[in-house]
Target: Restriction endonuclease
Amino acid sequence: MTVEPPVSPEAAVNLSKIISKLSPILGNLIEFNVVEYLDDQEEFAGQGTWLRQDPGFPDAVFDGVTPQPGFEIKAWFPLSTEITARFKDSQNHFTDNNTDVCMLAWLPEKILYGKPQIIDVVIVSGRSVAEARDNHYHNPPHYLVREPENTENRTSNLQQTNTNGYRIQDPTEDQLRRANELIESWGPDGRKYQPTHEYQEKLRELMSIANYRLDTNYAKMDRIVHPGLEEFKSRVLKLKSNHPISTACLSVG
Model:
């Protein structure tokens, strides 16, 4: 994949506004190629097959052993404002801790055009990302993380696996008082997020006290404060190169 050089300064400005949108395409291309590459490795011969899942989570799994190891790929263009990729899968999907998240930072050869180049990679446990997300966002009664409904009886394309975030909407003092009293009745761990059915029922009762709205910015990986991802972000944004534009851009972040 190659992005052609802009033909004018105006075209360069327009290109700078949209080039980060190549991240999903780049991520998909990497998924295809990595699965084919891994399947050619001798260490996996006779044990199983690497498969790309679309749709499905994670992006790639090793079919042949149980539990299935797998990985989810996220691509990040570091000259954009933040890591816009989201991670919404429930903690309940990581009980075996067999799925990793691979985040790839990339830039075109010439900053705005050329072939994409991977400049850094981080690999972290998917379970650790889900736990960091829920611990960061969940703050009852002001913000609630909710698990998906039980959809096991549905076909695979209709099964729900994602959590969602909800913000309280213009609560009255009385609503906040009642909400906090209810949370206190749950015991010392009442404000700590739990992906269990019992805790979700408690949250359902809490949401009946006040109005909550769905948060469309929920689960952005730039905001979940995961130690490994934060270190990766810092490392990438401190990168230097011999290209004067790239040095300036990465320094500004």
User: Anything to note?
Assistant: Confidence is low (pLDDT under 50) at residues 243-253. The chain has seven helices and eight strands. Strands lie at 49-52, 60-63, 70-76, 99-108, 116-125, 143-146, 164-168, 212-214.
